[in-house]
């Protein structure tokens, strides 16, 4: 039986293990939390992510190591890669850890991004605002997630506030200022590449965020917005090949008119692909574990209308959720906390109107910002 070690024991690790166990694969997950979400399906190693002894223990017990998040120190990762096969390879992870490295990589492949400038001081920020104009978004280069480490600058006088929101009291910090992209929609392309170079593409997913946190994802029905689909797959293939990436890769895009602007990438399974668990094809989680152990990839096609709704803050009552037609509940076993992703729902329907009815039924259980986001019209057109 092959053993997969996962750095991180959160919900992504849990869903990777849940997908791989029926294939006879065994899992370990390293995480500092004692009751991490993956602990019930993957043998836990409780330690800090940069604990070299614990990482060596994970490597020793695993045939291959993968990761569920990007913020592992480069040093820890390189140490790990010296003693065990790490997939995706460390280059994918190191580039995705830094928003500027990522943007340089996209530019080298001819993929357009938002205009940006590196910022290290408040004076740099003020100069950069005058060059890029407003609105703009100040972000940390590293360690940001779910809208954390970001501040929107609507006008020049917001500079000081944005600096202290993102850099705190520090006089110097590694930040990036991005011009605000006036997008109509956000989409993501999730694809998976095997060790033989075979690539499978999931349908393009339409994503709605509020306050920087993903609220709803719907995969586009076959034949919808084909020019966007073609652009997204071309960008993905360039990146997968350049990085010699093995496993799932996600690219998030802004849609401006008929063009795609790259926002960022994630070298791992991604929240905007959670619908794939119930969408009818092989899920992103199963394809990722297949890829990292060298098994053939499966067909990711989604065969019926499906929507993914994130549950943020607290789980609504299970007995009420289960009365919603076509609902599949995924509870991550996490304690309630504001802005925390504690679970998600996949809604399956037989028609676009059935999908809309289920989304409306779910909306009643959501906090206001999520409710408004999930009720937004969709381009997925199921
Ligand atoms: P990120 O962590 O960079 O993915 O940002 C989270 C969310 O903030 C994105 O999904 C967008 O909704 C919004 N956002 C981030 N950067 C920009 C930008 N340059 N222009 C417009 N919206 C943005």
What does this structure look like?
With 382 residues, the protein is an alpha+beta fold. It has 3 domains: 3-86, Rossmann fold; 115-179, 2-Layer Sandwich (Dna Ligase, domain 1), CATH 3.30.1490; 185-374, ATP-grasp fold, B domain (D-amino Acid Aminotransferase, Chain A, domain 1, 2-Layer Sandwich). It contains 12 helices and 17 strands. It has helices at 11-20, 52-61, 74-83, 90-96, 99-108, 122-132, 159-167, 226-243, 284-293, 318-321, 352-363, 368-374; strands spanning 3-7, 26-31, 43-46, 64-67, 116-119, 136-140, 150-153, 175-179, 185-193, 199-201, 205-210, 213-219, 247-256, 259-266, 306-312, 327-331, 341-348. The two termini are 40 Å apart. The mean pLDDT is 95. Adenosine monophosphate is lined by residues 114, 137, 144, 147, 178, 180-181, 186, 209, 212, 252, 263-264.
Task: Describe the structure in brief.
The chain is of the alpha+beta class and 382 residues long.
């Amino acid at each position: 039986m092959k053993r997969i070690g996962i750095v991180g024991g959160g919900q992504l690790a849990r869903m990777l293990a849940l997908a791989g166990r029926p294939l006879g694969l065994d899992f370990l997950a390293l995480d500092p939390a004692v009751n991490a979400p993956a602990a019930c399906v993957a043998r836990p190693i409780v330690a800090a992510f940069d604990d070299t002894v614990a990482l060596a223990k994970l490597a020793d017990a695993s045939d291959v190591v993968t990761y569920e998040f990007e913020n592992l120190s480069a040093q820890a990762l390189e140490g790990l890669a010296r003693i065990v096969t790490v997939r995706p390879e460390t280059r994918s992870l190191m580039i995705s850890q830094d928003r500027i490295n990522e943007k340089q990589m996209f530019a080298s492949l001819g993929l357009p991004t938002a205009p940006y400038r590196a910022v290290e001081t408040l004076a740099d920020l003020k100069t950069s605002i005058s060059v890029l104009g407003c609105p703009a978004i100040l972000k940390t280069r590293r360690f940001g997630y779910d809208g954390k480490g970001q501040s929107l600058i609507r006008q020049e006088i917001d500079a000081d506030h944005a600096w202290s929101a993102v850099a705190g009291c520090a006089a110097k910090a590694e930040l990036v200022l991005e011009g605000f992209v006036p997008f109509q929609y956000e989409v993501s392309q999730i694809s998976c590449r095997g060790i033989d170079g075979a690539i499978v593409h999931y349908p393009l997913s339409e994503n709605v965020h509020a306050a920087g946190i993903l609220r709803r994802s719907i995969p586009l029905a076959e034949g919808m917005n084909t020019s966007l689909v073609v652009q997204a797959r071309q960008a993905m293939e360039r990146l997968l090949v350049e990085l010699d990436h093995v496993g799932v890769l996600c690219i998030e895009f802004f849609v401006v008119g008929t063009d795609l602007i790259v926002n960022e990438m994630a070298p791992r399974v991604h929240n905007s692909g959670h619908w794939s668990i119930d969408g009818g094809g092989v899920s992103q989680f199963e394809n990722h574990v297949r890829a990292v152990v060298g098994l053939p990839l499966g067909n990711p096609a989604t065969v019926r209308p499906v929507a993914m709704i994130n549950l943020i803050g607290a789980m609504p009552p299970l007995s009420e959720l289960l009365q919603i037609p076509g609902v599949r509940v995924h509870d991550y076993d996490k304690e309630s906390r504001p802005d925390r992703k504690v679970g998600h729902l996949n809604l399956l329907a037989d028609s676009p109107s059935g999908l809309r009815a289920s989304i409306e039924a779910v909306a009643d259980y959501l906090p206001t910002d999520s409710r408004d986001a999930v009720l937004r019209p969709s381009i997925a057109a199921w």
